[in-house]
Amino acid sequence: MEIIIGKGLELIKQAQAIRHQVFTLEQKIPQELDLDGLDEDSFHALLVEQGEPVATARLTVNDDGSSIMARVAVVEVYRGSGVASKVVKALIEHAQNAGLDSIEIHAHSYLRRYYEKFGFKFIREVEVVGEHQLIEMQHQIVRT
């Protein structure tokens, strides 16, 4: 199992393929909502198992030292195996190493407790995407 973090075109294509399967096909979220134009300016984490990309997430860095984690997705056969947690932890570590101050996420409301395990705090309910209520959460990065 390997986690790659970067901005390369091939990495973006592999991440988008996972997201298309999970968000567009499975969750029925319109593809234009996923392809928001931020991929090229963001860091992508891709978890690869036996040569196959199986999980991804994206971190967009803002000029003020904050960042936004989004597009956390895992192919169906790997759900429940802990790979999403590995990707989330890798991006939190990447944000710490980059000297960022915070990470914001808009997550499905049913994932609130999951993200709280990583230190995210609930802020408020935000938009509904497709049939999914999203909540805003924030993780303050502690300098070590």
Description:
Keywords: Transferase. It holds the Pfam family Acetyltransf_1. The protein is globular, with a radius of gyration of 14 Å. With 144 residues, the chain is α+β, with helices and mostly antiparallel strands. The model has no long low-confidence stretch (mean pLDDT 94). It is built from four helices and seven strands; from the N terminus they run E-H-H-E-E-E-H-E-H-E-E.
**What form results from the Cα inertia axes?**
globular
How helical, in percent, are the residues?
25-40%
CATH topology of one domain: Aminopeptidase
Distance between the termini: 27 Å
Could you tell me the radius of gyration in angstroms?
A: 14 Å
Q: Looking at this structure, what is the CATH superfamily of one domain?
A: Gcn5-related N-acetyltransferase (GNAT)
What is the number of helices? 4
Content-based structural category: alpha+beta
Largest sheet, described in full?
7 strands, mixed
What pattern of helices and strands is seen along the backbone? EHHEEEHEHEE
Which consecutive residue ranges, at least 5 long each, have pLDDT under 50? none
Number of strands: 7
Percentage beta strand? 35-45%
Q: What is the CATH domain class of one domain?
A: Alpha Beta
Keywords: Transferase
GO molecular function: glucosamine 6-phosphate N-acetyltransferase activity
InterPro entries: Acyl_CoA_acyltransferase (IPR016181), GNAT_dom (IPR000182), GNPNAT1-like (IPR039143)
Protein name: GNAT family N-acetyltransferase
